[in-house]
Design brief:
By secondary structure, the protein is an alpha/beta fold. The protein has one domain (3-163): Dihydrofolate Reductase, subunit A. Helices cover 14% and strands 32% of the residues. The protein has helices spanning 27-37, 46-51, 101-107; strands at 3-11, 15-17, 41-45, 61-65, 76-79, 94-97, 113-119, 128-129, 138-146, 156-163. The strands form 2 sheets. It has an 8-stranded mixed β-sheet with strand order 5-4-3-6-1-7-10-9, with helices on both faces. β3 (41-45), α2 and β4 form a beta-alpha-beta unit. The longest helix is centred in the N-terminal third of the chain and has 11 residues, at 27-37.
């Protein structure tokens, strides 16, 4: 069974989008996204898919979740419920959930890993948000800080979170 990973660029206050678009352009984040997801399945909601400038992402199996049964696109598998996503019927080690907010909210409870690019800036006009990352459920496995530069208007940090495993412990005999 594949692990479920959520991948997102998240600004301060959990902001992820505005007017169905990303909040800013970070070329290194796009490269990071491509490196992590190439050769894997990516799952997205209809609005996220429609926001992609060139349709289906190359070198990935694209799955779009929509309630509209009449929709279809080239190089895309359309599903209508989370249960239709082939999590158990694949040899892939990881399947990536890439948005939007509704899909993140529905899948964070079953995710194993979060690949978050934390953008260190507040976008007051954001209208779409990532669910809260609860530190009692998630721990940082890896973190890499990146400064602002001529191609990146804001500093950001690549963070990989893994779900904390709660060990079943026998009560002590005190």
């Amino acid at each position: 069974m594949s692990k479920i990973a959520l991948i997102a660029a998240v600004a301060e206050k959990g902001a992820i989008g505005r007017d169905q678009q990303l909040l800013c352009h970070l070329p290194n984040d796009l490269k990071h996204f491509k490196t992590l997801t190439s050769g894997h399945t990516v799952v997205m909601g209809r609005k996220t898919f429609e926001s992609l400038p060139n349709g289906a992402l190359p070198n990935r199996k694209n799955i779009v979740l929509t309630h509209n049964t009449a929709l279809s696109w080239p190089n895309v598998t359309v599903v209508h419920t989370l249960d239709e996503i082939p999590i158990q019927d694949t040899t892939e080690d990881e399947i990536f959930i890439m948005g939007g907010a509704t899909l993140y909210n529905e899948t964070i409870k079953i995710a194993d890993t979060l690949y978050i690019t934390h953008i260190h800036h507040t976008f007051d006009d954001a209208d779409t948000f990532f669910p809260t990352i609860n530190p009692s459920e998630w721990e940082i496995a890896n973190s890499q800080e990146m400064p602002a530069d001529e191609k990146h208007a804001y500093p950001y940090t690549f963070v990989t979170y893994t779900r904390r495993r709660i060990e079943n412990r026998e009560p002590s005999d005190k």
